[in-house]
């Protein structure tokens, strides 16, 4: 997600409007009473659980404007980052080298996603298009047009036969990436759709928007199956299914990350301690070693929580601005994080225990 | 999809058969089968080709071009890596979908000396991912078990035992030798069932290729097709007399060395027929749970699928109307209330069970009710509670462990209870597995780039 969507290009009314909505730190006025404060993390107990020992391995510089997303390729060999500077950069996560730039979008980028075979990368841009790239050649293979406003988020299904994207027009679109055609448009939300994600069998899509709602959709019919409303001051910023698709993980503007059982609409876990009041910050699961929840924070740090106990197990310091994007390596204990305007670095962190001795 | 069953009020009368056509796939097909995952449909065509449809995108992902005469049968390996096509051009081709080409590479081409009426993979083979034991029926009525494994390489014809000593059967077999009209593995793969032109079902042991039972079905006439419920104990037959019969099968003993077989007449538990039009049937299929039976009517003016509730006294439930293109073939989805039915115009209808739009789903925390209900306030509903207590309770609740990672192994195909340890038949079938691995993904082949504007 690009927290500064359209900011460097603020000549049109549209752009200004977007900035006002998106970067407004004030929560929309609400007559309802505020939701109870998220429970404080339990006092750190002398837990017998293993703790992570991540250390900074590489700092990659090159982006010239706020970075909005980082993603490891599913085969683990590449790291992609995208930025408001209109460029997707492909890095080696092991050496920190820049491998390739993907140029073509005419406005800033908000999100990227890899196909499951690590051959293609898809990017969502403020120029209203979604592009599919052949990463090896660096060429655009498809330009998906249809969104009537900025495209904010994008994802493949597990077999990479479908794409889903969400835009600032409130629409969720399902695409056939092979043909480059839009299969379905769902008028999903009344505000910016900030995240979309398929479940394992692609039968369901979860979306969230700045209207504060998390919705679950049937991919085939486009029907809304359920709406989860967060607490009133908790505008949801990002959602995704857990690796087994039984739960969803959401981040919200009350500085809390929540794990939901969407069948019962129950919040199972709340992770707090970081700062997230203003920007679209994504969280992710780390499942390669012990199970962690990883998220960026507005205090320029990366936080790791224990999935079960909800304790903060490690804080990674190094960035000099808000950390908006994090990603975990699919096979190794490796984390990538990226930061905004005054920092502009992508950092790769590796668990010391996992390092070759 | 748990979410649907969970958000709906629990309804004991929940319909579990499809009711509406969701999509029509224009395939020029004569038959269509779902793969075991339910993601793909293989559609065989009269021109000798077959198309693989991806149901996520409703688009063709592979063309299987190789036969020169019409495709008579298609089958999938357990994890969908291999597709088998049988054709009137005397060949059976096994296609390897994991190859990154279109048409895919041919893993095997098996040539016969007559048109092939049907062919199928061994089901146990599917279970442990081996696609190398095939049952093949040729048009003249010869059934073969073809074993492609290097240690077992063979092609054995399944022959009915003619008992010379038995006078009755001597006179019977003298009248006319029966011809095999349909051949199927049972879901365990231990047995092969062969239907004959004189209304008999012959049962063979797959490993020894010996006949272990002969069942006479009175009044049936020539058998047209056989289908099994997934548990393998129920058999439904389609025959010349336009009646579908369901049988409960006996338990077959392992084949004896002296070649003794059971001679037994089977009594149907149910008979299904159309009492008014008395139409014939082009095919039938059980639902995955075996609770429903779908029959495709051979009506030459309409596309009709009859549904019977076999879990509930075999009552007739409904006739699905698919319009004016007559039905030629049908197949039930491996785990959903969905059917693929092929029309004589070559379209493949995908039937589904639509869920009604629930507007309550758009509002978080609201529940839709069908009629007014008197709301009963809970005793403590509006009690004022200390916030810290609520927070404490919430914290307690959050102590519960969650599992975000492990995926429940799908239960599909596991209806049959396997006990390989002490079973010679299964040990035999498990020998030499191939590389039809679970978790395999079909490579996406991007078409030639369209000019970009």
From TrEMBL, chain A:
Residues 10-26 have a biased composition (Acidic residues). SUPFAM superfamilies: WD40 repeat-like. SMART domains: WD40 (SM00320). WD repeats lie at residues 60-101, 102-143, 144-185, 186-227, 229-270, 293-315. Residues 59-349 form the WDR5-like beta-propeller domain. The keyword Repeat applies. Residues 33-45 have a biased composition (Pro residues). Residues 1-51 are annotated as: Disordered. One of its GO terms (cellular component) is histone methyltransferase complex. Keywords: Repeat, WD repeat. This is WDR5-like beta-propeller domain-containing protein. It comes from Phanerochaete carnosa (strain HHB-10118-sp).
UniProtKB/TrEMBL annotation, chain B:
The keyword Phosphoprotein does not apply. GO terms for cellular component: Set1C/COMPASS complex. Transmembrane segments: none annotated. InterPro entries: RBBP5/Swd1, WD40/YVTN_repeat-like_dom_sf, WD40_repeat_CS, WD40_repeat_dom_sf, WD40_rpt. This is Uncharacterized protein. WD repeats lie at residues 34-63, 64-99. It comes from Phanerochaete carnosa (strain HHB-10118-sp). Its main location: nucleus. The keyword Lipid metabolism does not apply. It is found in: Nucleus. Keywords: Nucleus, Repeat, WD repeat. It comes from the Eukaryota.
